[in-house]
Amino acid sequence: MNILLLGSGGREHALAWKLKQSPKVERLFVAPGNAGTARIAENQSFKPTDFETVKQFCLAFNVNMVVVGPEEPLVRGIYDFFQNDTALQRIPVIGPSYEGAQLEGSKDFAKAFMQRHNIPTASYKTFTSATLNEAFAYLDTLTPPYVLKADGLAAGKGVLIINDIEEAKQELHEVLDGRFGEAGNKVVIEAFLKGIECSVFVLTDGDNYHILPVAKDYKRMGEGDTGPNTGGMGAVSPVSFADKTFMDKVEQRIVIPTIEGLKAEKIVYKGFIFLGLINVEGEPFVIEYNCRMGDPETEVVLPRICNDLVTLFEAVALGTLDNHTIIEDPHAAVTVVLASGGYPGAYEKGFPINGLDKPSLKDAIVFHAATRSDASGVYTDGGRVLSVSGLGCDVQHAQQRAYEVMGEISFAKMYYRKDIGFDL
Ligand code: AMP
Ligand code: GLY
Predict the structure, then answer these.
(1) Nearest to residue 295, comparing CAs of 280, 279, 318, 274?
(2) Phi and psi for 53 in degrees, rounded to 5?
(3) What is the distance in A from the centroid of ligand 1 to the CA of 380?
């Protein structure tokens, strides 16, 4: 079959890498992809949010399945676009419907959904510029730090955690005043939860579900979890504190009520649910829902799944996921992101990347995140450039492998965290 994968990051290179292993795949297209996906698939230059071009491409190239990597096309309704088009209806889209994607697209929607279905999450209230005074009064009832969340998609920048009450009020005012554009028309204010975070991924056909290997993301730029938030500087799987007792609670209190809640509300969901969880003294709470896989978590989760991913996606489309079990690879995986110096602030790009073709890349996979290539070589093309995943019999060995392989790769102003996984 022919598959079209939408997106261009490390997550998409990892998805392409895994899809490509399936004997069922004839042609794999990635739009727009990067230099890494160009090596294993056929990159296409159109944007994932340009639905009309996606449609023309699917029809012209006889695409049999569309896999959506990032949230934006989902939140904009690509699933419904296919469903509502008689020529496209027969092509399964792996990802939730427009309404399902609002679990990520609107923090207020997600919080209200959790409240309706008794899913553990921080207590909250939602405000608009019309209720600014009520918002200030609500902040006064909370203890610091204060958590403010722009309702809509804000490129990972919409969550503010502030210690000082006056500063929190000032920031709240600015967000409601349009700092994040429309995404900030509503703001969720919620209680701060103290604990350790992990990322749980669920693959569902809307009826049945499977929980995938658990990962931990390292969001802060600096070692020891310091400095500004990023898209993620590394990830580890498995996660030692996500043991059976914890995961049983996650399944009973969060995963099942989420799937049942979607069903009860007739929200079509055939794809990944990403639960951003926090472990508060052994009890799981939902920090956020995402409607896609995580990046860089995908770069450690997929190498730990033995199943044919195309077969799983076919079962998602058919509603037969209950006929399959997830076969976990016992190896541990650690991925370290190589970023452009300056990221997540201003950085330069266009530097040549050396060492990508070293022969010793055994038990390691170099996933491209923001790269481009031409006849002369491969160049940096964004903030998070590569994600190097190492595999090993445990986290320590996987870590060693990742850092060893990274030592062979270089580009100007390369930055990476040296402590990914060392806390586990
Ligand atoms: P997000 O941009 O939605 O991934 O959120 C960024 C980060 O903010 C999360 O990964 C958490 O570390 C933190 N965060 C969000 N909500 C809370 C909360 N209620 N309590 C503590 N930390 C939070
Ligand atoms: N690594 C976090 C995310 O993908 O949102």
Answers:
(1) 274
(2) -70, -35
(3) 29
**Ligand with an atom nearest the CA of residue 71:** 2
Neighbours of 61 (CB within 10 A): 14
Closest ligand, as measured to the CA of 188: 1
Residues with CB under 6 A from ligand 2: 217, 232, 290, 294-295, 297
Q: How confident is the prediction along the chain (424 residues), in pLDDT tens digits per residue?
A: 999 999 999 999 999 999 999 999 999 999 999 999 999 999 999 999 999 999 999 999 999 999 999 999 999 999 999 999 999 999 999 999 999 999 999 999 999 999 999 999 999 999 988 888 999 999 999 999 999 999 999 877 789 999 999 999 999 998 888 888 888 889 999 999 999 999 999 999 999 999 999 999 999 999 999 998 899 999 999 999 999 999 999 999 999 999 999 999 999 999 999 999 999 999 999 999 999 999 999 999 999 999 999 999 999 999 999 999 999 999 999 999 999 999 999 999 999 999 998 756 678 999 999 999 999 999 999 999 999 999 999 999 999 999 999 999 999 999 999 999 988 8
Tokens for 364? 């390691």
Q: Tell me if 232 sits within 8 A of 299, measured CB to CB.
A: no
Domains contained in the chain, CATH given: 2-98 (3.40.50.20), 123-190 (3.30.1490.20), 196-323 (3.30.470.20), 332-415 (3.90.600.10)
Tokens of 202: 């669920």
Are the C-beta atoms of residues 354 and 409 closer than 8 Å to each other?
A: yes
What pTM, to 2 d.p., does this model score? 0.96
